[in-house]
Amino acid sequence: MSLARLLSDQNSRLGKLKRLLEEELQLLTPSQIDGDALTRVAQQKRSLLDEVERMEVLRRQVQTRLGYADGLEGARAAAEEAGCLAAWEACLSATERTARLNDLVGEVLEMRTLHNQKMLAFIRQIAEKTLYDPSGRASRQSGRISTSA
């Protein structure tokens, strides 16, 4: 497979990954999350990330086989000599955009997790102040406010 074809395929996969990340972000923004849809997107994203990684390994192997150094400089030189520098730069740019979007999704997930933890702690705190005695009957609460602290 030519380097130009590898880059084109990789750029296509990165575009799909970007769309999945955008969908995931949309699924994380409402107060009520659609867990099934989020699971579906996560599975598709995992599969696509595996494909992107597989293609990147193949691209690096081709780069090495052609005698270019490892890393960005070798990749750039290989793309330039193969006449597909624009495709390489587009792929690199798409990778950077996708990484930033993935970071944003991670931050949203972290915020949601922290929010959920706070809500669970609040619910536990309320549950500990039960209004029922061990027999299940409502305990009598005095109408007075305790002034001892």
Automatic annotation (TrEMBL):
Belongs to the FlgN family. Required for the efficient initiation of filament assembly. InterPro entries: FlgN-like (IPR007809), FlgN-like_sf (IPR036679). It comes from Halomonas mongoliensis. It comes from the Bacteria. Keywords: Bacterial flagellum biogenesis, Cell projection, Cilium, Flagellum. It holds the Pfam family FlgN. This is Flagellar export chaperone FlgN.
